[in-house]
Every structure is written in C-alpha cells, then in structure tokens.
Design brief:
The structure is a homodimer. The first copy, chain A, folds into two domains: about 190 residues, Isopropylmalate Dehydrogenase, CATH 3.40.718; about 150 residues, Isopropylmalate Dehydrogenase (3-Layer(aba) Sandwich), CATH 3.40.718. In chain A, strand 6 and strand 7 form a beta hairpin. In chain A, the strands form two sheets. The first copy, chain A, has a ten-stranded mixed β-sheet with strand order 2-1-3-12-11-4-5-10-8-9, with helices on both faces. With about 350 residues, chain A is of the alpha/beta class. Chain A contains twelve helices and twelve strands. Chains A and B meet through strand 6, strand 7, helix 7, helix 8 and helix 9 of A and strand 6, strand 7, helix 7, helix 8 and helix 9 of B. Strand 7 of chain A pairs antiparallel with strand 7 of chain B. The complex binds 3-isopropylmalic acid (IPM) (2 copies). One 3-isopropylmalic acid sits at the interface of chains A and B.
C-alpha cells in the first residue's frame, strides 16, 4: 500500500517519540512491502516561534493532502498561565481538528498485564479493564462562540450541538460497540444541560438501528466515579467534547502508565494519530521519554487503513519490549534503556 | 445558641439518614445547652408527587426564614432517562441553590485511617490525603441561557461568569487556604475557554491580597488525573460549577466510602448542609443506608455557626463508631448494624 503520512513532531518530547514511531512504520514497510512517504511540518509552540502561527498554512496544506497525520505533542510552559497571550500552541491543534474535520477522538483504555502493578488503583479493581472512549472533537464548548465584554468583567463560552454532529459520531461508536462487547454508555449531564438532552434523544434514536448493542446512560459526575470504582464495567463510552477531555484523561491513569496510551482522531476525509501524553518539556532531549504511546499511535494508523496484520506486528513487538523489561525509566526506575533504544528494540522486532 | 433549622429530607434514603443527623443535633442541644428548632418540608421527587413542584413555595419560604437548611437527598429513577419530562427533581435543588444564593459548595475530601483499605486506590497513594474543594454553585453552564430550536435539532447551553461571581468565592477559598496549608489550586480550562481565562485573571488578582497563600493552576483534564495519581498534593481546590461537579465526585472515591462525605453550600445569607451521596433508591427503607455523611453534614452546620467544640464532639463520636466497627454494611459486609443503630450509637456518644 502507498500512504502519504504527514509528520507533525510539535514541541517538547514530540519529535523524539515521533522518530521512534517512524522507525516502526519503516520496519513495517520493509517487512510487509509497503511504501509510505513522510513529510514533516511545524505545529504548536515551535511553529509560533518560527512562523508566528501555531498552525502555519503550509502545515495545514500538508495535512489536508496527506492520507494521515502522525502527531507528536504540543505545548510550551512559556505560553501557559498567560491569559493575555494572543496566540497559543493549543489553537494550532484545535484549528487542525476543525479544518481536517476530525470529529471523533478514539481512546482505548486498557491494562497491560505486565504493568498492572504500576497503577495507582488496586489490581482487583482494574484487572480486565478494556474500554474505548469516543469523544466528540469538533463541537461543543470548545468551538462555540466566546465572548468577553469591553470592561473584561464578564466572559462566556457557548456549548452548542446539532443533531448532525451527534449522529455522525454516535454511528461510529455504535459500530465500535458491535465489534466489541455490544455495550455503549452515553456520558452526559442531561439532568442539567439542554445540549445533553439532545445527545440523549439523538443517541437513543440511533440506538434503534443497533438492536444488538445495549445502550445505557451515565451522568458525567457519576461517570467520573465509576471509571475509578469499577472500570471493567465499560465497553464503549460515548461523550461530548469537554466531558470527553476530562474523563479520557481520568481514564488514562487506570493503566498506571500514560506513556503507553495512544489515540486516533478521525473524520470523513482525514485521520490523525497521537500519543495522549503532552509535550512534557522537562524531559525534552534527555532520551528518557517513553516512545510506546507514539508507536502504538502508528499501530492505530495502520489499523485505520485496514493493515491489521501490520498493526498486530507492532503491538506484539511492544508487548515483547514490556515483557522483557526493555522500557524507559517511567515504567521501571531502574531501567537503563532510553527512548531510542526502546524504539530500536521494537522496530527490530517487527 | 438558638437556631432555626429547616429539614428537607427529600427522596430515597434522604429521610432515614436525616433522622440520624437530627438525633445527633438533639444530643448536642442537650449536652451543650442549645436550642434548635426544626421545621420540615418537601423537596425533590416527593414534592413533585405531592405538590407538582420539586421546590414548593412553602419549602422555599421555610428555607429562607431558617438559619440553615439540613438536606437529605433528591432524585427518583422514574424521572431519569426521560428527556421530555417537564419537571425534574433536580430543578428543585438548582432553584433552591439559586434562590438562597448558595454560591459556594464546600467538599472536604479526607481519608479515614481506619477505612484506608476500603479505597479503590492503593494505600501509599492516598495516605495523608486531606483537601477541600470549593465549587462555584450558582453560575456557569448550570444557569446560563439554554436553547433548543423549534425542530429540536440544535441545542445549546451558555457558560457565563462575571468578575463578581468569581471574586466572592475566590475570597472564601483563599481564606480557607490560609487556615489550612496555604495552597490554592485553581482548576480551569484556560487554554480553551474564555470564561476560564477570566477566572484565572480574577483569581490571580485576588491572590495578591493573600500573599501567604501559594496559588497554582491546573487544567481540568490534568486535575482529573492528578486527583487519582497524587491526591495528597492538594490543599484547597477552587473551580467553577461544572468542573466542580465532576472533580468533586471523582474525589469522593478516594476515601473508598462515599457514605462518609458531607458538604456545605454557603452564601451571604444562608447555608445548606447535605451528604454528597444521592438518594440511593434501592436502599430506601431497608435500614442499611450509611448515616455518617448526613451526621457529618450536621457537624459542618455546627462549625458554620462557630460551634467548634460541638462539631468536634460529633466528629469524635463518628470516629469512635468507625474504630469500634459500629458501621453499616457498606463499610463492612459482615456488619449487622443498621442505619438507626449507627445513628443511636453516635448520638449517645456525644
Ligand atoms: C491541548 C488541549 C487543547 C487538548 C484538549 O483539551 O482537547 C488536550 O487536552 C487534548 O485532550 O487533546
Ligand atoms: C443533582 C445534580 C443537579 C447536582 C449537580 O450537578 O450539581 C448533583 O450532582 C450535585 O453535585 O449536587
């Protein structure tokens, strides 16, 4: 297969972990006889520094023309805590999601048996956890009208959803549930929010076309408890943008190793794959960042194009590295392996 | 001291746990020579059933005239999952908060050493956890304009905050931090929301009047992780309404026993005290509901009126019941003690 892949390393540890993912994709090319073309561009803080824009035009163009985007991370402390900053790295990511129409963010939450003791949660609570969060990514309060009055004393954000925005992601989530354990949980705040009531109505209606899937509902506050109290009860969770941001990060602690979690953001015409960890600027250039999340993002990319055997080869190589303890220090304090060595080991085992 | 206390038992297990709190207040009256007057009214589903209104006028009037409100719980499954229901029990609670001007919800999160093994989290993660969440309660997306178009295909909720709404709760939170460990964490989403940027600006400015308090900021998604990964890092958390709803329920799992957690909702002229658990309809009338959260709510009530010694007597009686294992089955499967017995034990030990 021929694939054009846009590489957006971004900030902090983004470039170094992305390098490892590319190594693995190259190993896949060789082993399975594919032809991937990689083109790189700036995004985030580095793009602001170099071009004054967190998402420069040529970066967006590159992404639109590519078959898929492989993303590193964005964010730099110098742009945080500055409420008056006119450009922020995050704007680049949000604009990219919107412009590419990436309306669904998919985040698998799984416990790796070899690492079960790394979790802050007790083993008996998390064992068997294996769910996927479908988070709406281009609507809601992230993209609704923002206002601030002239005196700077009243500010607002609008959370708006249309039936169309809800139904397109709902179909994807129901299909995912059909391919898994036939359970879909809608997380909302329908006892308070009008937009949540629309979500409930639309999702309930769509559920009639998926009779094999059991649909249930959870208020977001209760969901925030259940994810910790009994995470193995979930199969597919569907939710709106802001709630998804919160509960998917919450879910990421279950496995005890945020450095292992990948995500896909998909739309009708494009797809982007990224580790869920941030830019972790303190670790930049130290060869200590865990490359596994980025590598597993490349596995999600392969699956997206139907290359299941290839993705499996990547996942098996990752499992092998975990089993053999070829891991970065975040997973094992005593480990001597760096980002590059772990990347090499995994790539060599594909 | 003379106090007029409005009792709002509400739904489900509300009435039976509230009874135990009243027992304890009566014991305090006797022991410390106070005079509390109790008047009861309907709220929630039972108020809809009896009066067609989740917050009947006479209930609101009673609360306004009282010095404080002691609340049970609200909610009934027959009103859930019905997006078309015209009246919902929750509306009663929201209206009560708004009408009484209860702009600050205070939720202590603490680990009871005797119960540390009940937590889904590992002991070493949670030991030493002792923080308090200050959640804004009468603004934000809960109370902003709600819209749905005529076709029922587009719905929205407005999240709006004014400087005034932010500053009044911020002062309370800074004062609380001063009386604790001098650390305040503002949880927001200032990298995305205009209203969050206003929160950051206002809270930063107010912080200058509390130089002894260290102020830091955490994005809500990161906060949702940190609360589980390292809960003992927090002292006072300040946040807006919706984020507070989610992270305070998330925080409630740390101690492993939601049946122990109390909350206060305070304003300039009134105050309401309630357990954070819900109406738990499945347990209604079975004499198995844990009365401790309701009893500790009454301790918060006493503290609110400066009756610190009295509150301490209640807390010590609670500790004694926990240490002696005089607890309901939620804390110990093998326990034979019911709601009433636990309430009696605690009241008798005041
Ligand atoms: C960086 C930020 C804008 C972003 C979000 O809130 O969506 C991030 O937290 C994420 O979840 O991808
Ligand atoms: C019942 C509901 C409206 C309420 C809220 O969301 O505020 C509850 O969850 C709470 O936290 O007190």
């Amino acid at each position: 297969m021929n694939l054009n892949i846009a590489l957006l390393p971004g900030d902090g540890i983004g470039p170094e972990v992305l390098d490892q993912a590319v190594k693995c994709l190259q190993a896949v090319e060789e082993t399975f006889n594919h032809n991937f073309i990689y083109k790189e561009a700036f995004v985030g803080a580095i793009a602001i520094d170099k071009k004054g824009n967190p998402l420069p035009d040529n970066t967006l163009k590159l992404c639109k023309e590519a078959d898929a985007v492989l993303f590193g991370a964005i964010g730099d402390p110098k742009y945080d805590n500055n409420p008056n900053a006119k450009v922020r790295p995050e704007q680049g990511l949000l604009k990219l999601r919107k412009e590419l129409g990436l309306f669904t963010n998919i985040r698998p939450v799984k416990v790796f048996p070899t690492l079960i003791d790394n979790s802050p949660l007790k083993k008996e609570i998390i064992s068997g956890t294996d769910f996927t969060i479908y988070r709406e990514l281009t609507g809601g309060i992230y993209f609704g009208e923002k206002k601030i009055n002239d005196e700077g004393t009243v500010a607002s954000d609008l959370c708006e959803y249309s039936e169309k925005e809800i139904s397109r992601i709902a179909h994807l989530a129901f299909k995912a549930a059909k391919n898994r354990s036939n359970k879909l949980t809608l997380v909302d705040k329908a006892n308070v929010l009008e937009s949540s009531r629309l979500w409930r109505k639309v999702v309930t209606k769509i559920g009639q076309s998926y009779p094999e899937v059991t649909l249930d509902f959870l208020f977001v506050d209760n969901a925030a408890m259940q994810i910790i109290l009994n995470p193995s009860q979930f199969d597919v969770i569907l939710t709106e943008n802001m709630f998804g941001d919160i509960i998917s990060d919450e879910g990421s602690v279950i496995g005890g190793s945020i450095g292992l979690l990948a995500s896909a953001s998909v739309g009708d015409e494009n797809a982007l794959f990224e580790p869920i960890h941030g830019s972790y600027p303190q670790a930049k250039g130290k060869d200590i960042a865990n490359p596994v999340a980025s590598i597993l993002s490349s596995a999600m990319l392969l699956e997206h194009f139907g290359l299941f055997e290839e993705a499996m080869a990547v996942r098996e190589a990752v499992d092998k590295s975990l089993k053999k303890g070829i891991v970065t220090p975040d997973l094992n304090e005593k480990s001597q392996y760096g980002t590059n060595q772990v990347g090499d080991f995994i790539a060599n085992n594909i």
